[in-house]
Structures are given as C-alpha cells and as structure tokens.
Amino acid sequence: MARLLWVVQKPVYFLGRQWNGVDIASVFTLTAIHLLALLAPFYFTWSAFWLAVVLYYVTGVGITLSFHRNLAHKSFKIPKWLEYFFAYCAVHSLQGSPLEWVSSHRSHHQFTDTPSDPHTPLKGFWFSHIGWIFDFRKRFGSYDGRLYNVGDLKKRSYYKFLHYTYPYHCIACGVVLYRIGGMPYLVWALAVRTIFFLHVTFSINSICHIWGNQVWDTCDLSKNNWLFGLLAHGEGWHNNHHAFEYSARQGFEWWQIDITWYLIRFLEIVGLATDVKLPTELQKNRKALSNKVSSMEQEGRSDTKVK
C-alpha cells in the first residue's frame, strides 16, 4: 500500500504539467496496445477475427451491464455469483478496476459538464476522449481523495481484490490467447478488440456530449447518438441515460437498439434479475424537452394576450 501511495503522490514534471506513476503507466500501456493493434493486417485469420468479435461482446457487455448499470447505478440486482462473473468479464476490457471505473462514472454524473467532471468536453475534445485517462490528479485530486464515492463497493473483498490485481488478469488473458492462437489471437482478440471498444467507450464521454440529439431536459450536453447506441451495446442513447440514470434500459424506443437491456430483460424473465428500475410514463412526461418547449410557447402566448 505504501508503495502504491508513492507511485501516485510523487510527481515528475514535463510537458508543462505534473505526471505521476499512474499517468506514465497509462501512457505506456495504451501506446503499446495501439502499436500492437497496428500489426492486425499482417496477422489476420478468420478464427482470430471472430474470437475478437465474441470477446468484444463478452467484455463490452461486462462493462455496460456490470460496471455501469449494475454497480454504478444499481439499476437491477442479480445473484452474487452472476454479478461477479459479469464484473470479471468487464475487467478484461482494460478500462480499470471496478472501484476506479464506478468512482469516475459517479463523479461524471455528480458534476456533468462542469470543470469538476472527470472527462468534460469543456476542456476540449482530446481531454474528454482520452486525455483524462493520463491525468490522475484531475480525475481524483490525490490518492487519499480518490474512490470517495464507492464506499459500498469497497466493503466487498472481491472488488477490492480486482482493484489491486486487475492488470494481472489482462496480462494473463494475453498469455492464454498467445498460447492458444499465437500472434493472430494476441493481435486481434486482445489488441484490436480492446482498442476498438476503448475508443467506443471514450466516445460516449466525448462525441455523445457534442454530436447527436437531445429529447430530455437534462441541463447538460448529453446527446443520443445512434451509431454509438449500436457500437456500445446501448450506451449511445446517452441523453436518455442522463435523464434517467437509474434506468436499466437506455434505448426507450423500439428502434433504439440496446443489447445490454435485452440481456437484462432476459435475466429478469428467467428470474435472475430483480428490482429492475425503469422510468414511469409520468417521469418521462415531466422530463420531455418537447413538453417543456410547448409549455414555454403557451406561456409566451399568454403573456402576449395580457399585453
């Protein structure tokens, strides 16, 4: 623990800012895996490609179902063995430990699109997309101050274990893939798959706060973006999510594809998911931006008549 504190608290200075051990490790790791992904054309095989697709869904839905809707927002409950399974799948997305991921996301909702938001586009597209990953102090302030909002998860030994060991699980996954299928599996099923989903996830923070449409009165920059609704297993319906962050379902319309919700709904049907939270029609009517616009127009007409 003392060693970890030293890594986080002892900064070095270059490129006009402070960098600690976590920042440097993040730059090295993401650079290395991007470089490995560049080898994809030279190691293509169909088996490696389809394995990458399968793991893209397994680890990606792990993030969306476990880290996001289950742990961060408590949108539903599932048995502990299943909860832990999905969380372990999410670990292999290389997006941090459950404690760190949930802490950052809860801070995002607490301070959405303000200077305290861990990845607000107000600090520029690069920062909101990936730059925030390389700036530990802007995300957490200090090591002592980090993870202040995940006390519920810190009480669980399983999540504390994953917090301190998650990089080793990713490394072990790479070793297993290499032993099974050599460089094609390592390049495609690890590097390409991981990089693709990382940038899809990062785009929810950046693109979905810049481009898309708003249908709910959320007082922030969140947007619904159909492309990332598809690529991010339903997370691209981001304005829906910010309007009803507790909701297990994010694609509210029949045409808003939400693969994560389909799985949650299946688990509910077979009796494994309980306490599934959804917004009521009354709550939707209160939040609907179209209703607010209509109300303002009616008030405007009333004012005109009075004059």
Observed structural traits:
globular, two-stranded antiparallel sheet, disordered N terminus, 61% helix, 307 residues, transmembrane helix, mainly alpha
Spatial sequence of strands, sheet with the most strands: 1-2
Question: In angstroms, what separates the terminal alpha carbons?
Answer: 70 Å
Count of individual domains: 1
Give the overall shape. Answer: globular
Indicate the percent of residues in helices.
55-70%
Category by helix and strand content: mainly alpha
Residue-averaged pLDDT, rounded? 89
Uncertain segments: 1-8
Q: What is the multimeric organization of the chains shown? A: single chain
The H/E string reads HEEHHHHHHHHHHHHH
Q: Number of DSSP strands?
A: 2
Written account of the structure:
About 60% of the residues lie in helices and about 0% in strands. The chain starts with a helix and ends with a helix. A hairpin with a 2-residue loop joins strand 1 and strand 2 (about 15-20). A two-stranded antiparallel sheet has the order 1-2. It has one domain (about 15-120, about 140-300). By secondary structure, the protein is mostly helical. The protein has helices at about 1-10, 20-35, 45-70, 80-90, 100-110, 125-130, 135-140, 150-155, 155-205, 225-230, 240-245, 260-270, 280-285, 290-305; strands spanning about 10-15, 15-20. Helix 3 (about 45-70) crosses helix 4 and helix 3 (about 45-70) crosses helix 5. The chain is globular and about 55 Å long. It contains 14 helices and two strands.
